Amino acid sequence: MNSKLKQEIEDLTSLKFFIEGREFQEYFCKPLRAKQDELRLSFFSDSLKDAWKKGGKYQGIEEFFDILKQVNVDLTNKRDELESSEEDKL
């Protein structure tokens, strides 16, 4: 159990460092945030059909960032779980 948990923590930590890295931020997050801002600003000036399409794209980008945020939440939960299981052994 602990070895699996430790591996998950290691994987999530590695993923967290990748997400926070300059390259990921520069080439994925920054362009997606810019696109999200563009979609938000033009949403109300378009026809209903175009607004619907742009709203879907906006939601997709939002979901992507929610997944990235969840990595940190999962990492915190796994660390707490490991700490709790080690305390139970004592």
Description of the molecule:
By secondary structure, this protein is mainly alpha-helical. It has one domain (10-85). It is 91% helix and 0% strand. The chain contains 3 helices and no strands. The radius of gyration is 19 Å and the shape is elongated. 1% of the residues are buried. The model has no long low-confidence stretch (mean pLDDT 90).
Q: Brief overview, please?
A:
By secondary structure, the chain is mainly alpha-helical.
Distance between the termini: 16 Å
Total number of strands? 0
What would the principal axes of the Cα set say about the shape? elongated
Q: Give the SSE order as H and E letters.
A: HHH
Largest sheet: none
Q: Multimeric state of these chains?
A: single chain
Overall domain count: 1
List segments where confidence is low: pLDDT < 50 over at least 5 consecutive residues. none
Question: Which structural class do the helices and strands define?
Answer: mainly alpha
What number is the mean pLDDT? Answer: 90
Beta-strand share of residues: under 5%
Rg, rounded, reads 19 Å
Q: Provide the helix percentage.
A: over 70%
Note the total helix count: 3
Structure characteristics:
90 residues; 0% strand; mainly alpha; elongated
List the helices and strands and how they pair.
Elements lengths: L1 H19 L1 H21 L5 H42 L1
Helix pairs in contact: 1-3, 2-3
